[in-house]
Amino acid sequence: MRITVVHSHAPRQLWLRELDLDSGATVREALAASGLLDAFPTLDLGACTVAVWGQRAQPTQRLREGDRVEVCRPLKVDPKVARRERFRAQGMRTAGLFAHAKAPKKN
């Protein structure tokens, strides 16, 4: 069966390998066969999230034909914290749901 393994080691950088594996192969077997750890010897798979088509996957999960195994690097900043900081920097009037709302007309 045909499987794709992808990893983004840096912003806008994509490492991609297409593999032909036996039917019933697992995520762990796909990662081993892809050569990911040979290409990135400092990569800690324990710190990364592994997903199949964007859904978190366990190493023992069985793969199906055409699956895409994604190795996601850890976040540098918590998205909630980043959003709060952007909001604080922009101010209440220029950010949020009503930033571009027009003032009501007076009759």
From TrEMBL:
Superkingdom per UniProt: Bacteria
SUPFAM superfamilies in the record: MoaD/ThiS (SSF54285)
Membership in a protein family: Belongs to the UPF0125 (RnfH) family.
HAMAP family to which the protein is assigned, alphabetical: UPF0125_RnfH
Protein name in the entry: UPF0125 protein EDC62_1364
Organism per entry: Tibeticola sediminis
